[in-house]
Amino acid sequence: MNIPANLHYTKDHEWIKVEENNIAVVGITEHAQKELGDIVYVEIESIGESLDQNAVFGTVEAVKTVADLFLPVAGKVLEVNADLSGEPALVNSSPYEKGWLIRLELANTEDLQALLTAEGYKELIHA
C-alpha cells in the first residue's frame, strides 16, 4: 500500500501536504478509498469557510456508503478540486495526486504536530 513519507496523516484517513506560504493540499488515503470502494460523488460546500481542526468539510459518496471528510488542521478552505465534479473516481485511481480534495490556508502550523507520520499511519492501519 502506498503511504508517501512526505505527508501527514489523520486517524480518520485524511492526508495533508504542506506547500509554500502555509497553503496545504488535503485528500483521503489509499487505504480509505479502498475501504470505501468506488467513489461516485464528492460534495464539498465549505469553500471560503474557516474551519477548526477535525471539522467536517465535506463528504464522499461511494456505491455503498457516504463518509464525512474531516479537516486535518484548522484553516480556510481556498479551493476544491474541480476535476472531481466530473470524475470523482480520481479519488480511487490517484488519491495522492489527481484525486486531492481541497487546498486550504493553515490557521496554525502547530496543528501538524498532532498528526501521524507515514510510519505512525502504517501502524494504525495494520493494528
Secondary structure elements and their pairing?
Layout: E1 8-9, E2 14-18, E3 23-28, H1 30-36, E4 39-43, E5 50-51, E6 56-62, E7 66-70, E8 75-80, H2 83-86, H3 90-93, E9 102-106, H4 118-125
Report on this structure:
It is a single chain. This protein has about 130 residues and is of the alpha+beta class. The protein has one domain (about 10-125): Beta Barrel (OB fold (Dihydrolipoamide Acetyltransferase, E2P)), CATH 2.40.50. Helix content is about 20%, strand content about 35%. The protein is built from four helices and nine strands; from the N terminus they run E-E-E-H-E-E-E-E-E-H-H-E-H. The protein has helices at about 30-35, 85, 90-95, 120-125, and strands at about 10, 15-20, 25-30, 40-45, 50, 55-60, 65-70, 75-80, 100-105. The strands form two sheets. A six-stranded antiparallel beta sheet has the order 1-2-3-9-8-5. Strands 4-6-7 form a three-stranded antiparallel beta sheet.
